[in-house]
Amino acid sequence: MRVAMIGAGYVGLVSGACFADFGHIVTCIDVDEAKIAGLKEGRMPIYEPGLAELVATNVRAGRLSFTTDLAQGIAGAEAIFIAVGTPSRRGDGHADLTYVFQAARDVARHLDGFAVVVNKSTVPVGTGDEVERIIRAEAPQAEFAVASNPEFLREGAAIGDFKRPDRIVIGVEDARAEAVLKELYRPLFLNQAPILVTSRRTAELIKYAANAFLATKITFINEIADLCEKVGANVQDVARGIGLDRRIGPKFLNAGPGYGGSCFPKDTLALIRTAEEHGSPLRIVAATVEANTRRKRAMGEKVIRAMGGDVRGRTIAILGLTFKPETDDMREAPSIDIIEVLQAAGARIVAHDPEGEEQARRILKDVEYRPDAYSAVEGADAMVIVTEWDEFRALNLARIRTLLREPVVVDLRNIYRREEMDRHGFRYTAVGR
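Below the sequence we write its predicted structure tokens.
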């Protein structure tokens, strides 16, 4: 099948490359000329494990191409995906649909023959209705259908998630659209990936509900971690104890500094606003957002307490800046709030992240970056693990002990055992243990 992907960002590029790997002919379209030029030369605009190789393979095979010319890109396409950004709108938290609606207008001007216009972007309930209205107004004679096909990709594991999904959600109001999308995903039938066909509005809500539930689960275990510290319990054992219940499950029960990234923060806010507009407030989700915001700053205060309550003039080494490992994404990363709290208290920050430095430099001020963990901790008064990159899981603790000016380690991801840290003479602080 011929597929057009409008937007060559995280979702569009990963989805386009994976569809091409299935054997479809895919054109990724983006207005950013520098991004498209880079992609044509094999440079990825994001860090995602395996993506550069997947793109290169399918470009060589002639199944994947890139352009800034929308008319050329959608010509002959049976499925036209809208995979543009939907950031939180300034001031009210609503999803900003400017790019989605502009894409719909652009598509309308160039439709030629029946095509399914598919919202891949995360959008509020009813967005598909508005996209259909826009296209109909711009091109009254056009033959098309509008569908919703939300993505469920985890940064750092996106290719595996696309090719071995838990489920594929298709929201349609047209039998032809359903047939096109089922054919598009037919290569996954061998993996027995379940396809859930729903109404368009239901599909739009599934995406938001899923992210809100996972965000709530993270926030729940973080609050339980705080209680564990007060009563002398171990949150990791609590998480195992409840996670073995199949009704609960073990995933997203790792206590830490709070959630961040491109999805959970903006999607929970957008869902809250949608619910308020329809007179059906989501109080649990609202409490989750509030608690997570407090959580990030509280982790900065936790570091200060671990250092005796005063960090003025002291150097703190931060290991890990991105919101999670295996990505360069700094959006809403807990490290931002933690570093701001420490700097406001007078601390000097040195940091290392395997992939996030370039993005971090655009956000964080007055931070000194180091090329590896050992150079970051050398001469520091404390080491703080914020993101659980694999390279931080097996540090040479004897060497770390000699490099630190003071033996203070704050492990916000619980990747080390207290007995091990005690044996090396560290003053060790973890989360919920």
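The longest helix spans residues 200-231.
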